[in-house]
Amino acid sequence: MRAKFINEAYGFERGANPLKNLNIGIRSQIINWLYSMSIKNYIINDDLTIDVNGSVNLSYKNLTHFPKFIKFNHVSGFFWCDHNQLISLEGCPKIIDGPFMCSDSYLENLDYFPEYVGDDLFLMRNKLTQFTEEDIRNKCNVVGRVMI
Q1: How many angstroms separate the CA atoms of 148 and 142, rounded?
Q2: CB count, 10 Å around CB of 49?
Q3: pTM of whole model > 0.85?
Q4: Between 129 and 49, where is the model more confident?
Q5: Domain extents for the chain?
């Protein structure tokens, strides 16, 4: 009798990555982190970016950055990451349909800033004080007010 490969033993497609199918690795890390942050109604895309059907509240989570494996793409509601110690927005959504709040943090630049915010944008009490509303609007299409 011939030994089975793991893909055959578990009914996975030949050539498929069994670790991905078993939720081992980065996909599993993403799921665990989203669960720990009480984020629901999400889809992990093939490129491992995250779309959230709803809002994300990461306020008061003592974050200095998002983990390297977290890369939000589209959030259909609000995205709040205020009252943290964020120094970078790497991993922040590209598209936020609702308001974006990232006040009371330590942001030093506009790198990884959202491309679109469908409502108001709040960046008060950050190191970003050297940036103007015009700088922010040149980086991001903000539908609502920009509060800095």
Answers
A1: 13
A2: 17
A3: no
A4: 49
A5: 1-36, 39-147
